[in-house]
Amino acid sequence: MTTRRTLLALTTALAVSELSLSAGQARAEDAPLTLPDMPLHDPWIVADDATQTYYLYTSNRERMSGQKGIGIMAYRSRDLIHWTKPSVVFALPSGIWANAGAWAPEVHVWQGKYYLFVTLHNEQMPLPGGTPEKPLYRRGTVLGVADTPAGPFTLVRDGEPVASKDLMTLDGTLYVDPKGDPWMVFAHEWIQTGVGTMEALPLNADLSAKGPPKTLFKGSASPWAVPQQGAHIVTDGPELYRTSSGALMMLWSSWGKDGYIQTLACSRSGDLFGPWEQLPMLLDKGSGHGMVFKTFEGQLMLVVHRPFKNARGYLYEVHDTGTSIELTRQRTDLDLDKNPLPPFTP
Predict the structure, then answer these.
(1) Residue 230 has what DSSP assignment?
(2) Per-position pLDDT tens, the chain of length 346
(3) Which of 57, 65, 255, 337 has the most neighbouring CB atoms within 10 Å?
(4) Gap between the Cα atoms of 139 and 161, Å rounded
(5) Is 296 in contact with 52 (CB distance < 8 Å)?
(6) Do 309 and 289 contact (CB within 8 A), yes or no?
(7) Strand pairing report for 325-330 and 169-176
(8) What structural domains does the chain harbor?
(9) Cα Rg of the chain (Å, integer)
(10) How many angstroms separate the CA atoms of 47 and 56, rounded?
(11) H-helix or E-strand containing 38?
């Protein structure tokens, strides 16, 4: 009897081992990439409950997706470690005003559809007020829509920017206020304003502009943002997150003394219009354009790119303190970073 039980146990263990090996081989074939293999910029992650799949969106790179052209591609993962080769989920069609860009893709669920927010531009379409040294040209956040996070996304309103075409707007993000009303929060480009600003544009239910934008704060409000090319201050990558106690946080990026930074602002009133308090930055040394998401296990996470050029993605655990958010540790078991960067300490 003992021998029979031993043989049964060994047989079961072998079968489990073979199944695990088979699953691992299948995963390696279907998802052969890890974050160090994946060029990206302005990463945005959607955790899709329906398929238990993470989608990581970034600008299209032909050598990764195999598809030429301006657009957005998405990597997919089940565990945040192993990622598929990317597929193009949005391709810029010919015949619209824009011919370049596809920056800062974000995908949000609104009224049962998936909306892509993405920034496009055209340097051959000048705006008034420019100079030969500092030309101004059309740049704006546009919308695409799809039935699933896998796309394909088709342009809304023929690709016209959500804000006025005369404004150089970038990195638009969707914010839904406590009343259920949508807003687009965006960075007003420093090229046009001198000092970049964060602004909020009220939207209709179809995500068209409902009124003029209102300024939330200037980039110069942060002590961590360092002027570039004279007195110019960059504002990039806003994303809103409401804490467990109702404070409204804005993640945003600029340039600091050691390169690109991931910084943070807080509206303790919970109101979009503040007042906004600039908090210590979260990360420096080339880290930035981050966003927070929850894993399928409920862990709040931050993804950022680093460095600014030839960037890769990095993951950090985030703790919601109620009055703010803070980074607890870098998840090197997921991003496989051999040179981890600790959270910034003032």
Answers:
(1) T
(2) 555 555 444 454 444 444 444 445 456 679 999 999 999 999 999 999 999 999 999 999 999 999 999 999 999 999 999 999 999 999 999 999 999 999 999 999 999 999 999 999 999 999 999 888 889 999 999 999 999 999 999 999 999 999 999 999 999 999 999 999 999 999 999 999 999 999 999 999 999 999 999 999 999 999 999 999 888 999 999 999 999 999 999 999 999 999 999 999 999 999 999 999 999 999 999 999 999 999 999 999 999 999 999 999 999 999 999 999 999 999 999 999 999 999 999 8
(3) 57
(4) 8
(5) yes
(6) no
(7) unpaired
(8) 32-335 (2.115.10.20)
(9) 22
(10) 9
(11) none
Instruction: State the Cα–Cα distance between residues 303 and 293, nearest whole angstrom.
Output: 8
| Residue 236 phi, psi (nearest 5) | -140, 155
> What does DSSP assign to residue 209?
B
Return the closest-CA partner of residue 44 out of 126, 107, 124: 107
Instruction: Give pairs for 1-7: CB < 8 Å, separation 24+.
Output: none
How many whole angstroms separate alpha carbon 24 and alpha carbon 17?
10
Three-state SS at 233: strand
**Which two structure tokens, joined as six digits, stand for 24?**
């691992």
CB 80 within 8 A of CB 295: yes
Q: Could you tell me what percentage of the chain is helix, strand and coil, using 3-state DSSP and rounding each to the nearest 5?
A: 15, 45, 40
CA distance linking residue 34 with residue 50, whole number of Å:
23
Tokens of 173: 């993000």
Distance CA 271, CA 276 (A): 9
Q: Could you identify the residue written with the tokens 């704060």? A: 217
Strand partners, 320: 325
| Residue ranges in the chain assigned as alpha helix (H) | 2-30, 62-65, 190-193, 332-335
Cα distance between residue 50 and residue 323, in whole Å: 31
Q: How far is CA 67 from CA 32, 105, 133, 185, in A?
A: 19, 18, 35, 31
C-alpha 20/C-alpha 1 separation (Å) is: 29
Q: What is the DSSP string of 40-67?
A: -SS-EEEEETTTTEEEEEEE--HHHHS-
The pTM of the full predicted model, rounded to 2 decimals, is: 0.92
